[in-house]
Design brief:
32 strands, 0% helix, 42% strand
Length: 260
């Protein structure tokens, strides 16, 4: 199905979009945002969503709303500013259920796949592949008191940010938490003009909860990812520096949280 104009879901409306089979497709034809959700709810399941286009949130832009994605795949969306696939604000909540993929998406500024602000919540353990941000957060950018978490086992791979947070950037007063093994593979960011292989950009005053452990697959030296606060060769160590001083050494740290 090709969507030529954005579908507006507003004022308490609940819209459910379900694919009849694994080949179900919603295509924005690179001409429009697909869904605009304001003070409402959107549930998407079993659908491949592609080629949205907008300044922010090419597939979905939401304010004060709830979104759920069940076995949904988001591919080849491109924002001219923020959030290549999803832009959430004003206390919105977005969650993923079951396997899903965010691949080959981009944003000219921040959040190649997802941009969350204004006290919003993201809960999503998906496959995040080959997403690109022109500045910060190659895959996800979280700020303004928002939170991101995941319970399933996600993979962040081959994503790029021009400045910081090749996989994920979490800004001051926001938080990140997870309680499942998490894979990172060949995410990169450029930092102050130099090439870097940093996965996270997590400044001070960010709450961090690490419930189980982080898994970074050992790669050939030429492409081995490096995490903020880690020395070369410490793959599998906690990915914190000043943000979480209580994390020590490699292995599987116990659940904790810090705020500095």
């Amino acid at each position: 199905m090709v969507v030529n104009d954005s579908v507006f879901v507003v004022d308490g409306t609940v819209l459910t979009v379900a694919g009849a089979d694994s080949n179900a497709v919603i295509n924005g034809n690179a001409g429009t945002r697909l869904f605009t959700v304001v003070n409402a709810a959107l549930h998407v399941s079993g659908v491949n969503i592609s080629l949205g286009a907008s300044v922010a949130g090419e597939a979905i832009a939401a304010a004060g709303s709830t979104q759920t994605f069940d076995r949904a795949n988001f591919v080849r969306h491109g924002a001219t500013a923020l959030g290549g696939v999803v832009f959430v604000s004003d206390g919105s909540n977005a969650s993923c259920v079951g396997a899903g993929t965010f691949a080959d998406n981009s944003a000219s500024i921040d959040g190649g796949a997802v941009y969350a602000s204004g006290g919003s919540t993201i809960s999503c353990g998906a496959s995040w592949l080959n997403n690109v941000a022109g500045d910060i957060g190659g895959t996800i950018r979280v700020l303004g008191g928002s939170t991101i978490s995941w319970d399933e086992e996600p993979l962040f791979a081959y994503s790029t940010a021009a400045r910081a947070g090749g996989a994920l950037s979490v800004n001051n007063e926001s938080s990140v938490s997870w309680n499942a093994a998490t894979g990172f593979n060949s995410n990169t960011a450029g930092l102050v003009g130099a090439r870097s292989r940093r996965l996270f950009a997590i400044p001070l005053r960010t709450a961090v909860v690490l419930s189980l452990y982080l898994t970074v697959r050992r790669l050939p030296r030429a492409v081995s990812p490096r995490i903020w606060g880690m020395k070369p060769g410490m793959l599998g160590a906690p990915c914190m520096s000043k943000t979480a001083r209580t994390f020590r050494g490699a292995g599987r740290p116990r659940a904790t949280s810090t705020r500095t």
